[in-house]
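C-alpha cells please, single chain.
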Amino acid sequence: MGVEITSIRVNAGTSCTIFAAFTKPDRTSYPKVVNVAATPTTVTFKWRWTGGSTTTWTYGTGTQITKLSTGVYVCTIPTSTPTATGITGLVTGAGVVTATAEFEITVGAVSP
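Here you go.
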C-alpha cells in the first residue's frame, strides 16, 4: 500500500497543485504482486506556510480536494501569501489504503 505525490504544478504565483496517487497490492496474480490504484476511505491534505498555522482539508467535506479517478486526488493550495517562503505538508489515506506522503514547496520570486 502506498501513496505517491505524482506531480506538483506551480501556477504563476497564484497556487500550487498537488497530485497524489494511492495504490494497494493486488495478490490475485500470485506469485507476482502488482500495485493497483485504490481509493482510501478517507483522504486528507494538511499543509502550512512557513511560520504559519496548519490547514487541514478532507476529501468530501469541501471543494478543495478533487478525485480525478480511482485513487488519484488533486489539491490546489493558494500561494498568495506574500511573506511566505514555502509550503510544507502531507497527504494521508486511511481505511482501504493507509499511507502518508510528505511534500515541500519553495515559493520564490521569478525574474524575467
